[in-house]
Specification:
The chain is an alpha/beta fold. Helices cover 35% and strands 24% of the residues.
Length: 561
């Protein structure tokens, strides 16, 4: 893939090829196998990528084809992402915790030709769909899978790599490098809509490449930087800020073995940089507090491997107490802001430019402004081209090149952005997960037992719900279960009633992913009403009002944390 050129970089393909040309023999990527980290050079990665391109070509993948990818983070994920792009195809990463029904919808909607799976766990989700499993697809798995998906065999990734001629992969990659255009579609990433139907965010090669390059330029990371990745690569935060920034900066990247081994991996690899969501940093803070080490000099550094220079936060709002805690202990925790629709970085804090409560300043070339109603608007090379096969949703969010973020904010006199609220009905948990509450509430109220439901969880570690029961249905269920109470006010807290509600909540939400599950609930003594200002004239929920009226009940649902 060697080709000397000085033209501006406007694609991930060109970014990757130039990195290999410039840094070939240098250490690049570390991954863990059998308890030990193994390092690969950029040249090693180039050969592995070309082998994977050859495998895709053998499967019939052509430029413009969609390749769906359902896998947890692993070495193969990185290689597959780069190979899909080097083949000129379009990567459709699907979040691995989703259910079979959710994944199948995205596979169908994207028109994928090939589906890459991590192993039996993901294959079993499709097998459970029976006749509803997508058909006429080519299935490939990294780990061995017995049986079929959609009536077709599941190919083994390693066997494809071994049997595909390397030369065909090199030829295809070189051809893609010559022909790829900045506006070529690189990926389709599905994100939750307010009604629950996912929307496929279309990001181009130019979107991703410029966002990574500009993020690196703003942060001015040092050449010996070593970042540890543990955030899901199927989310754009990790994909751009870990994967593509690593390539753009020519630094080093290590993949955590799993979520459970992050701190052990820190001790083994000694990262200098970590990208994480606020929930992760909150766990570190609480862990040190519980051990009585919060104020012990070097304890935070030691927990993160001893070499950490700074941490970056995104995906959700960063609580100010975490900002204070990390900065006071010599580990700057820098907050950024972005969306899947913006590749994702809009604003970023750096070691020389950060403020408490702020999400930083815009990247070079990125514009932001505040609309009359307080909504944050943004324009620039980072903004998506639209939602796949959904022009109505595209037109709603994109006007005259400006993208409406759905978030409310203000900009201070020095250009720092502060997020003040959320306009759109999307919950962003403390773990950075986007959840459509309307969809979950609709599922819950399909059960005759529930007449109203409000799901909460913004900037919280898990989802909870305020539930209003149908008194007649509840009474009938209590009678059937022989649940007796000696006073009406005790019904809502009776163990038998609580158990009944738990069963119904689990049943109604059985088809959604684990992070969309309601972990705790409060059964309310009255319903939401227009008289109390909790419903609109169309009987839509006034979420802010309801949460203010039932603040004590909501707080009690998170008190054990």
């Amino acid at each position: 893939m060697t080709e000397t050129t000085t033209t501006p970089i406007s694609s991930i393909v060109e970014l990757y090829c130039r990195r290999i040309d410039e840094s070939g023999p240098q250490a690049a990527l570390a991954y863990k196998r059998e308890g030990e980290y193994h390092w690969l050079t950029w040249n090693d990665l180039a050969q592995e990528t070309c082998r994977a391109v050859a495998a895709l070509v053998k499967l019939g993948v052509q430029p413009g084809d969609r390749v769906a990818h359902v896998s947890e983070n692993r070495y193969e994920w990185v290689i597959a992402d780069l190979a899909i792009q080097m083949a000129g195809a379009i990567h459709v990463p699907i979040h691995s915790p989703l259910t079979g029904v959710q994944i199948a919808w995205q596979v169908r909607h994207s028109g994928a030709k090939v589906v890459l799976l991590s192993g039996p766990g993901q294959a079993d989700k499709f097998a459970a769909l029976g006749e509803d499993c997508p058909r006429e697809l080519t299935w490939v798995s990294y780990d061995p899978v017995a049986g079929e998906c959609g009536g077709r065999p599941v190919h083994r990734w390693s066997e494809l790599l071994a049997s595909a001629p390397l030369e065909s992969g090199i030829d295809a990659a070189c051809q893609t490098r010559k022909l790829i255009a900045p506006d070529s579609l690189a990926t389709i990433i599905y994100t939750s809509g307010t009604t629950g139907e996912p929307k496929g965010v279309m990001l181009t090669q130019h979107n991703l490449a410029t966002n990574a390059i500009d993020t690196c330029a703003a942060c001015q990371w040092e050449g010996d930087e070593l970042r540890l990745n543990f955030l899901p690569l199927s989310h754009i935060f990790a994909r751009t800020c870990d994967l593509y920034c690593w390539i753009a900066g020519g630094t080093r990247l290590a993949l955590a073995e799993s979520r459970e081994t992050i701190l052990a991996d820190c001790r083994a690899i000694h990262p200098t940089l970590i990208n994480g969501v606020p929930h992760f940093y909150d766990r570190l803070y609480r862990g040190l507090c519980e051990k009585g080490l919060a104020d012990t000099p070097g304890a935070l550094q030691g927990m993160l491997g001893g070499a950490i220079r700074h941490c970056c936060g995104g995906g959700a709002a960063l609580p100010e107490h975490l900002y204070d805690f990390f900065h006071a202990r010599g580990v700057p925790l820098l907050q950024g802001y972005g969306l899947t629709e913006t590749s994702p970085v809009i604003t970023i804090s750096t070691e020389t430019a950060h403020r408490r409560g702020s999400s930083g300043r815009p990247l070079p070339g990125v514009e932001i402004r505040i609309a009359e109603d307080g909504e944050i608007l943004t324009r620039g090379p980072h903004v998506m081209v639209g939602y796949y096969r959904n022009q109505a949703a595209t037109d709603e969010i994109l006007k005259d090149g400006w993208l409406a973020t759905g978030d409310l904010g203000r900009i201070d006199e020095d250009g720092f952005l502060y997020i003040t609220g959320r306009k759109k009905e999307i919950i962003v948990t403390l773990g950075g997960k986007n959840v459509a509450p309307v969809m979950l509430e609709s599922l819950l109220t399909q059960d005759p037992l529930f007449v109203q439901a409000l799901v909460v969880g913004d900037d919280r570690p898990y989802l909870a719900a305020l539930l209003v029961a149908n008194p007649e249905v509840l009474a009938a269920e209590m009678q059937a279960r022989k649940i007796e109470v000696d006073a009406p006010e005790k019904i809502l807290t009776h163990p038998g009633v609580v158990e009944l509600i738990e069963e119904r909540v689990r049943r109604q939400l059985a088809s959604v992913s684990h992070y969309e599950q309601v972990q705790r609930f409060a059964l309310l003594p009255r319903g939401f009403s227009i008289e109390h200002g909790e419903l609109t004239a169309k009987l839509s929920l006034r979420r802010k009002v309801i949460q203010e009226h039932f603040a004590a009940e909501i707080d009690s649902l998170y008190r054990r944390e």
